[in-house]
């Protein structure tokens, strides 16, 4: 029979830290309805094309087309007849220049409705924050493993280790009303703040003599 292996202990540690919300993300949309699906599509596409042309003049803001969908509107007589068509098409904007984003969103709201406007960490900002927090989580795991081994008068070695991040935990933000601004366009207020990233480390150590 094989000799029994060394005793093992399973443990975990976690660390968290801030990540600056330095990327503004906005989704705006054009939505129209009418008796003709083709006419509705022409109107929506015209609105989106004009918005794209305006957005591309702002070099500090990345713009791309988003989701687009068309669906029938049925009458209320219970006969299942299509009485109209509705179409919605979206634009997605991203920028680390909050002043430029705020100004552009304000202008676009003359013709488009705002679905949402949020601040979040840019990809590189998030990667750096996760890397820093990973170091903290590993050090916390190491400290806990050493505490267990020292308390039991043993040395230890790591038999298994798993590291994972929990993604972003954004701060609570007020809901923004998605409505077309018929009045003069005004810059949308943007405040960065911070999100929180967390990293979880779990593993198993072997206790040695």
TrEMBL record:
GO terms for biological process: DNA damage response. Signal peptide: none annotated. Gene3D superfamilies: Protein of unknown function (DUF541), domain 1, Protein of unknown function (DUF541), domain 2. InterPro entries: 26kDa_periplasmic_antigen, SIMPL/DUF541. This is Cyclic nucleotide-binding protein. PANTHER family: PERIPLASMIC IMMUNOGENIC PROTEIN, SLR1258 PROTEIN. Pfam families: SIMPL.
């Amino acid at each position: 029979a094989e000799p029994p292996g060394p005793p093992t202990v399973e443990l975990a540690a976690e660390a968290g830290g801030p990540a600056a919300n330095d990327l503004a993300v906005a989704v705006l949309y054009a939505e129209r309805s009418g008796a003709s699906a083709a006419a509705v599509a022409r109107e929506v596409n015209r609105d989106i094309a004009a918005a794209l042309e305006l957005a591309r003049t702002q070099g500090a803001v990345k713009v791309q087309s988003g989701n687009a969908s068309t669906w029938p509107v049925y009458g209320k007589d219970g006969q299942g007849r299509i009485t109209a068509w509705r179409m919605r098409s979206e634009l997605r904007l991203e920028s680390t220049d909050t002043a430029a984003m705020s100004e552009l969103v304000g202008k676009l709201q003359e013709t488009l409705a705002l679905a949402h406007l949020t601040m979040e960490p840019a990809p590189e900002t998030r990667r750096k924050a996760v890397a820093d927090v990973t170091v903290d989580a590993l050090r916390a795991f190491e400290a806990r493993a050493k505490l267990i081994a020292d308390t039991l008068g043993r040395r230890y070695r790591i038999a298994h280790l798993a590291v994972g991040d929990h993604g972003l935990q954004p701060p609570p933000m007020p809901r923004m009303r998605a409505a077309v601004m018929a009045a003069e366009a005004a810059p949308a207020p943007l405040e960065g703040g911070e999100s929180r990233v967390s990293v979880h480390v779990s593993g198993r150590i072997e206790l040695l003599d």
